[in-house]
Amino acid sequence: MRQALIVVASVLALAGCSAGSEEPFVGFGADPNIPSPEKDLLPRVNPAKAVGWPAGAAPTAPEGFVVTRFAGDLSHPRWLLVLPNGDVLVSEASSEPKDPEGLMDRIAQRIQAYAGALKPSPNRIMLLRDADGDGLAEMREVFASGLNRPQGMALVGDTLYIANTDALVATPYRDGQLRMEGIPKKVVDLPAGPINHHWVKNVVAAPDGQRLFVTSGSNSNIAENGMAAEENRAAILAVDPAAGTVKLYASGLRNPNGMAYEPTTGALWTAVNERDMLGDDLVPDYMTRVREGGFYGWPYSYFGDTVDERVEPQRPDLVDRAITPDYALGPHTASLGLTFYDAEAFPEAYRGGVFVGQHGSWNRKPLSGYRVVFVPFAGGMPQGEPQAFLTGFLNDRGQAMGRPVDVAVDGRGALLVTDDAGGAVWRVAPTAPAAQAAER
């Protein structure tokens, strides 16, 4: 009963506030509008209830593309890895019920349950195979089980790295393998502990395979648990797997998730979820190049040098050197996975651009995200207007039939999208005439 009253109070707090912008791309771009903050005493609560997909329903792609259910009946699918032989690994993990650590945690768990994200974690990786090339995975195997909320995966040579919530582990891999053999070996510990507010960890390998980069989200909204609880958090970490060492690579990134290398410049980019309780139109999530030793503002400032006055003590010295992110992705969109399109099946306009999975807001009115967006690139940087590429995740009642998470390009140049609330992996491919034209 107490939890219900807390959520009701938060809903009433939202009802008493002015709604955010209805513009589909509010807070997007290299120079987004940064409005004055609204100071909320309680989190605004406006999640979309997860209801699943009706029979035969699917998200909507632009004209010239077809969407198929690559795989369904999955248990909270999250991150993707396309293997060299075309097999697809998908991690299955979720937030788990636990004794709440205070008011914010109580609210968070109620919201997660409503949005379909709070359940016993499957803790496994599934292998999907489309051997006949029809866009449907006719084979599915449990590749690995007994993991600890696995998320990102990276293959370097014959070693598969898996980012559990508390450790980076490694296991041998050979081409076409259907199941992990033996127990994975721990490479390094990762920040976890009893709070573990942003538990998701992702991993990518440097092009030479000598280092691995791991995302580590903050343990709070604005360091209200103290900076001691944020050691090696709100950061991207560099791991030397040969030496078994981990060090800070870039910091001040509140909750980084997706990572990918831009194909023209080779720069590492990441998608980052920003802070809450400053209003419906603050603070925009973003994607940005990751600079070694770079500091991106959290918790002391956002989108460069805009000071967050709620944080105590203030650190003007850090605000002075905060890097302004390269491209805003809208407030509360929960931008997660990102991938650069480096294949040839899609029309020319998509080559080199980036796709971003926007999981969707839980604390904004109107709802934001719940789609996959595309941003064109030229010369290694965003150029042109953002586009809503994969939509239709919300029904006409504002309920979530699905929520996109990660995005990846498969071996045939189609786009794969995980949908944790819908329990599916969607595949977006050009219609036959477009695909034939690309081959010519």
At a glance:
The protein has 440 residues and is mainly beta. Helix content is 9%, strand content 32%. The protein has helices at residues 2-15, 103-114, 316-320, 432-439, and strands at 28-29, 65-71, 77-82, 88-92, 124-129, 139-144, 153-156, 159-163, 167-172, 185-189, 203-205, 212-216, 235-240, 245-251, 255-261, 268-273, 284-289, 301-302, 306-307, 327-331, 335-340, 354-358, 371-375, 377-378, 381-382, 387-390, 404-409, 415-419, 424-430.
Secondary-structure content class: mainly beta
Query: What global shape is seen?
Result: globular
Largest sheet: number of strands, sense, barrel closure: 5 strands, antiparallel
CATH architecture: 6 Propeller
Span of the ends, CA to CA: 64 Å
Tell me the number of structural domains: 1
Strand content: 25-35%
Record field, number of beta strands: 29
Q: State the CATH class.
A: Mainly Beta
CATH homologous superfamily grouping: TolB, C-terminal domain
Average pLDDT, all residues: 93
**What would the CATH topology be?**
Neuraminidase
Give the proportion of residues in helices.
under 10%
Task: Please explain how this structure is put together.
The chain is built from 4 helices and 29 strands. The protein is mostly beta strands and 440 residues long. It has a single domain, classed as Neuraminidase (6 Propeller), CATH 2.120.10. It has a 5-stranded antiparallel β-sheet, with no helix packed on it. Helix 1 packs across helix 2. The longest helix is centred in the first third of the chain and has 14 residues. The N terminus and C terminus are likely disordered.
